C-alpha cells in the first residue's frame, strides 16, 4: 500500500508536463519579439537605402539641370529655377524633393588640382560651377523621412543628405566644313553635284545665293554665340573635299585652315579666305573628321583639361575615303564629341546620325539656310557639364 502510494506521488523538484509547456510558450514569445524587431529593423534599413538612392538621383538631376541652364541662359535665376523644377519632379520617399533656393543651390568656382581632383569654392569668381544639396532633414522644405517600424524603438525618422556639384567645362572647338563642288550650287538648285561644265565650277562660290554663303552665315552666328558664353573657348577651322587640281587651283583632301585660337577672328579670317578660293572636289568626310581630330589634339594649341567638340557639316554623301561612321571611333578615343550637321535634302542623314551617335554627340538636319543658322547657334550654346562631386 505504501509502495503504491509512493509510486503515484510526483518527485520533488521535477516539473510537470504542463509546466514545461508554459516555459516554452514564454520562450517562443520572447524569440518572436526579437524576430519581429529584426524584421522591422531590416525593413527600415532597406527603406533608408532606397531613399538615399532616390535622393542621390534627384540631386544629380537637379545639379545637371542647373549647370546646363546656366550655360544656356547665362542667368543665375534661370539656373536656380531649373534645379528647383527638376528636383520637384523627382519623388524621394513618396514626396517631391523641394529645394531651399538660398541654402540648397550654391554657385561658385571649381578648379582642377594637380592630382586631378576638383576643388569647389562657394561664391568664387568667375562662376563656373553649381552645387546642389538634396536634403530630407527636419529643417528641409520636404522634411525628414518617417520610419515604418523604427518608432517602436522610439526612432521616429531618418535624415538623408546628398550633394552634387557640376562644372561647366571650357571647350576646344573645331568646325569642319564641306568644301566640295556642290557647296557652290545655289540654294534652289536640285542637282546633287556640280558639273565641270557649269560656269560656276571655276569660280569662287557666289556669296549671295550659294550653299556656301548659307554656311558662312551659320558660321558667323556660331562665333557670335561664342562671344556670349563665359567659358574660355578656343576655335579652329578645318575643311575637306578631295585631292586634285581644277581650274588651276590645287585642292588637298582636307586642311586645317586655322589651328585652335582664343581669338575667334583668326577662324573668321580663315573662313573668309576659303570663301575667295576656287575650291572643288568630291566628299571625303572621313578625312575631314581626321583633320578635326588633328586640330583638337595638337599639343601646341589644344588644352589638356578643355572639353573637345567637333562640329561636322556636309551637304551630301561621302563619295571617297573611309565610311565616316568607321572613322568616328578615332575621335572617341581622344574624347572628342562630334555634333553632325546635314544641310539640304541631298545629305546622307543616316550616316551622319551614326557619326554623332558613335561619339555621344547630337545630330541635326537643316533643310534650309535659316535652320542651318539656328543649328549652329544652338551647338555653340550647348555647353558641356561634368560632375565633380
TrEMBL record:
Limits of the VWFA domain: 172-379
Gene3D superfamilies: von Willebrand factor, type A domain
Superkingdom per UniProt: Bacteria
One Pfam family, short name: Tad
Record-linked PANTHER family: CALCIUM-ACTIVATED CHLORIDE CHANNEL REGULATOR, ZINC FINGER (C3HC4-TYPE RING FINGER) FAMILY PROTEIN
InterPro entries, per the entry: CLCR, Tad_N, VWF_A, vWFA_dom_sf
Protein name, entry field: VWA domain-containing protein
Transmembrane segments: none
